[in-house]
Specification:
The structure holds two protein chains of two kinds. By secondary structure, chain A is α+β, with helices and mostly antiparallel strands. In chain A, about 35% of the residues lie in helices and about 15% in strands. Chain A folds into two domains: about 80 residues, Beta-grasp domain (Ubiquitin-like (UB roll), Roll), CATH 3.10.20.30; about 70 residues, Orthogonal Bundle (DNA polymerase, domain 1). Chain B is about 25% helix and about 25% strand. In chain B, helix 14 runs parallel beside helix 15 and helix 17 crosses helix 18. The longest helix of chain B is centred in the last third of the chain and has 28 residues. Classes of the chains: A alpha+beta, B alpha+beta. Chains A and B meet through helix 2, helix 3, helix 4, helix 5 and helix 6 of A and helix 1 and helix 17 of B.
Chain lengths: ~160, ~800
């Protein structure tokens, strides 16, 4: 086994220094080493999107990124952006529209939707569907999620009625 | 005396029935503060990984664990014989499925492996990574045997028998023969036939199966934290096969990341993990990874159906089917793997009024992953067959397929009605639903548009599917056959001195909105604002004994129990209030968490004040008053085996004849699930169900090679619907409540999945028929469509 290595990561604004095995994924580090269980593990091969977190400002697959790659980086998870209130409008739209059922895909779906709205504050429905296609949801059939993102965008840009 | 009968549950001043209120448990999920089982860490918790069979069929010649035992962090390595001493095998049969046979199934394979993915050796270590490292060092030597892969030849005399003690590979056979089928076909104006294939697929819950078993020898108790749909059933199974007294077993289920029928069965790896906790006297966690999920979660469908339909006088007069399904090497315990075939036989032709029906169903054993009940058990096959036949018959008769349906649906005034297969319907609304659908989708307009576009080389199709859904199952589903699966469910509701109301129920939450539904009904029945109600689910120690959430039973069964418990508690509260206020109970009502005069509405005492008096200052109560601020009621349907619902689904899509790609353009559902408690949650159940049905129709397929290896056991290779491919889905409702309960609710969890594959299938054939193409199997991949068009 390769010896573990010390890494320092700023997670949700808090500096964390721990030793991890070089093979450990970022999402396993977040879940197992620092107890941030809001990021989920669905496929461990970068397909389902449930492990999506923000690394140095961009969303990444937490299962395809190694924890050691995050050494010196800034990571934001669903817990951090919830506490900061950054995605409150999006979360409120999800609740109002029942855009989550089991909730397993939801933290990652929200982080992805937030990234979309940052890039494109007024996306069309096809644009929303396209952007979210890397995040699987088995419960909702997606329509409620698209509705919620559309409604949050409209509220945030003041274009809503 | 004036009529003092209480207002019905539907028109109370503060009724939440029929209102789209938000679910109480979604905010924490949206903030990443869920409590999924894998989030749980216990002191001294070990992790198990499994060595699984790489062969579909083989003798285990030897197992060498010595290199693995030296791997860092290993705690214990266990193989089949040793495991069998701690976890007894099980057999998935039920007495009411006459003739069903299966063989004992062990937690870890003993002697022979019978599917690729079957667990063979369990490796327990301090971390999952350490367990996997060691598992890779376990050396199992196998002697491969000829695998039984093709269900079509599973019964041939030359095919090996999976379990020699069973004599053959036939697990179950059923024959239905009603009316005079031969005469009906002989007298038919038109006959059409089909041979249809329904691909094997699986649930792909985004959260894989997971449990943490925690045996505490000091207390003599086994606690299993588990992502499951049926905590009480699992409690019984863990006790039965580990030998621990059932009363000392507790199953706790918090958030469940998708279930769809996957998390309701007895899995050998789950059983091994629980037994290992007992053996090691410490907590053991098992989380399936995605590869393990694909080769060990139950699969579903995989039916080949030969079918024939007779039409006379513009109406359906007879249907005949021959259904064959392969279920893997074992009938799954305790629900059995004969149920899907049984349902297909029950449900074929279900929406239509005809008397002549013959069906043969055969369930065969094979060396593929186990198969059992997944969302909409049997329904997509039954309506896939029925609706394909109806469209074929319409083509043969040169009728509009809508017209043949209109002529043949069970009339709305025919109830109670018994279908050709013997299934009994209390009251349905096929005709009204169908007419509503034609209007909703603008059927005539679409037909005109379709014709217009064809002239421009654009091929669009309309698919119609009438359907019924089995909901609110009675004891006739499982209990009658000997399974320890509760058909009853209960709700206990208590009023605390805060004025808060807590409901505990045996049904479980997997995102459907169970907890919201129970809260809405309880709040309405008692007369309190929704914010005052808390709901507790998923703990065998703190909730009433019950069946859990499956077969669309939560709202119809536990909902009725909540209504009755809420009414009982309301009666108890009013009795105390009457004594305290020196009033007649029948002049008082509860509104907005306060006891009021029924006539004037003026407040007499808040429930919080009443509660404080009862709990803290009981000395103020008149003599003889014995308040009970808690009530429990249970409910189980008895009059009908199931409360059937009905609906119609329709699909509008475009096929590109050059690429074979299908673009879904529109999808409509008209659904009658009786009393709707929360319209938003009902619609979202339907939408999610439709999309799973679309997955079955277009993408999802467990592909096997001729040696029984699953070829696409990854999420990259097994396709599920993604956001970009899915249409928006328009839903309308009719409400025909069941008269068996006061609430009148039926289930809706499976309707979408039940009807969508048929609608998509028919729409594809409607689009490509004009080009001479016809598909006969789902999933309808671009390749299969190009083949149907003779292009590849």
């Amino acid at each position: 086994m390769t010896p573990s290595r010390e890494i320092s990561v700023t997670v949700n604004g808090e500096r964390v220094t721990v030793r991890v095995e070089p093979r450990k994924s970022l999402v396993d580090f977040l879940r197992e080493d620092i107890g941030l269980t809001g990021s989920h593990v669905g496929c461990e091969q970068g397909v389902c999107g449930a492990c999506t977190v923000r690394l140095n400002g961009a969303i990444v697959r937490g299962c395809l990124t190694l924890a050691v790659q995050a050494d010196g980086a800034e990571v934001w998870t669903i817990e951090g952006v919830s506490d900061s209130g950054e995605i409150a409008a999006l979360q409120q739209a999800f609740l109002a529209r029942n855009a989550l059922q089991c909730g397993f895909c939801t933290p990652a779906m929200l982080l992805t939707a937030a990234a979309l709205l940052k890039e494109n504050p007024a996306p069309t429905r096809p644009e929303i569907r396209e952007y979210l296609s890397g995040n699987f949801c088995r419960c909702t059939g997606y329509q409620a999620i698209v509705d919620a993102v559309e409604s949050a965008a409209s509220d945030m840009t003041g274009a809503g009625s | 005396m004036t009529d003092k009968s209480p207002l019905s549950i539907h028109d109370l001043p503060n009724s939440y029935i029929g209102r789209s209120v938000p679910r109480p448990n979604t905010r924490r999920l949206a903030e990443g503060r869920g409590a999924f089982t894998d989030d749980l860490t216990l002191a001294r918790m070990a992790h198990v990984a499994f060595v699984r069979s790489p062969h579909a069929h083989a003798e285990i010649k030897s197992i060498d664990v010595s290199p693995a035992e030296k791997s860092p962090g290993v705690i214990r390595i266990v193989a089949g014989e040793e495991m069998a001493r701690h976890c007894t095998p099980w057999v998935g049969v039920l007495t009411h499925l006459k003739g069903l046979k299966s063989a004992p199934q062990y937690a870890l394979a003993v002697g022979r492996v019978r599917w690729q993915g079957e667990p063979v050796v369990a490796v327990v270590a301090r971390t999952r990574a350490a367990a996997e490292d060691a598992a890779a060092l376990v050396e199992v030597s196998y002697e491969p045997l000829e695998p039984v892969v093709d269900m079509e030849t599973a019964l041939d005399p030359s095919t090996p028998v999976l379990h020699p003690e069973l004599g053959d590979n036939l697990a179950f056979e059923r024959i239905v023969d009603a009316g005079d089928v031969d005469a009906a076909f002989a007298e038919a104006d038109f006959v059409a036939d089909e041979v249809l294939h329904f691909g094997r697929h699986t649930g792909v819950t985004l959260e894989p199966r997971v449990l943490v078993a925690d045996y505490n020898p000091g207390a003599g108790k086994l606690t299993v934290h588990m992502s499951t749909q049926a905590p009480h059933m699992m409690k019984n199974i863990f006790a039965t096969h580990t030998g621990i007294d059932e009363d000392d077993v507790r199953v706790i289920c918090k958030d469940v990341g998708g279930s769809f029928g996957i998390k309701i069965h007895t899995y050998p790896d789950d059983m091994a993990a629980v037994a290992l906790s007992v053996m090691l006297k410490r907590p053991v966690k098992f989380v399936a990874d995605r590869l393990e999920s694909f080769v060990s979660d139950i699969h579903a469908r995989d039916h080949r159906v030969k079918a024939k339909i007779a039409v006379r006088g513009g109406r359906i007069t007879a249907i005949e089917i021959d259904d064959l399904t392969g279920i893997g090497p074992y009938s799954v315990y305790p629900r059995t793997s004969a149920v899907e075939c049984n349902q297909v036989l029950n449900l074929v032709g279900g929406p239509y009024d005809f008397a002549n029906y013959r069906a043969v169903g055969r369930v065969v054993l094979q060396n593929k992953n186990i198969m059992c009940q997944y969302r909409a058990v049997g329904h997509p096959v039954a309506f896939g067959v029925t609706e394909a036949l109806v469209d074929s018959a319409a083509r043969a008769a040169d009728m509009d397929p809508a017209e043949l349906r209109r002529n043949s649906l069970v009339p709305d005034d025919a109830y109670p009605y018994t279908g050709a297969s013997g299934i009994r319907f209390e009251a349905l609304s096929h005709q009204k639903s169908f007419e509503k659908m034609l209007q909703l989708m603008d059927y005539e307009g679409l037909r005109a548009e379709q014709a217009r576009l064809r002239e421009n080389g654009v091929y669009r199709g309309i698919g119609l599917a009438a359907m019924i859904e089995v909901t609110n199952p009675s004891p006739m589903f499982y209990g009658v056959g000997g399974a320890h699966i509760s058909a009853r469910d209960g709700v206990t509701i208590r009023l605390d001195p805060t004025g808060g109301v807590t409901c505990a129920t045996g049904v479980t939450e997997q995102g459907q909105g169970t907890e919201a539904m129970i809260a809405q009904i309880a709040a309405s029945a008692i007369g309190v604002p929704l914010e005052k109600v808390r709901v507790v689910t998923g703990d065998t120690e703190t909730t009433p004994y019950g069946g859990g959430t499956w077969a669309s039973r939560g709202a119809g069964i536990a909902g009725e129990a909540a209504l009755q418990a809420g009414r009982a508690l309301r009666g108890n509260i009013l009795a105390v209030a009457a004594a305290m206020l020196q009033a007649e109970a029948d002049t008082l009502d509860i509104r907005n968490a306060a006891v009021v005069d029924t006539d004037s509405g003026s407040e007499r005492i808040t429930l919080a004040d009443l509660g404080k008096t009862v709990y803290f200052r009981g000395n103020e109560l008149p003599d003889g008053v014995s308040p009970e601020l808690v009530a429990t009621r249970h409910y189980s349907p008895r009059q009908y085996p199931f409360a059937f619902t009905n609906g119609v689904q329709a699909c509008w899509l475009e096929v590109d004849p050059d690429s074979g790609f299908v673009q879904l353009l529109d999808f409509w559902v008209v659904e009658d699930c009786g009393t709707v408690i929360n319209p938003q949650l009902v619609d979202e159940q339907i939408r999610g169900g439709v999309v799973q049905g679309i997955g079955a129709a277009l993408y999802e397929h467990c592909l096997y090679d001729d040696q029984g290896n699953m070829r696409n056991a990854t999420m990259a290779d097994y396709l599920v619907p993604m956001a970009t491919e899915m249409p928006d889905i328009t839903i309308e409702h009719l409400e025909t409540p069941t008269a068996e309960s006061v609430l009148g609710a039926k289930g809706v969890g499976e309707a979408g999945t039940a009807g969508a594959p048929a609608a998509v299938f028919n729409a594809i054939n409607d689009a490509i028929g004009v080009l001479g193409g016809k598909i006969t199997a789902i999933p309808a991949t671009p390749e299969s469509i190009l083949k149907a068009l003779g292009k590849v």
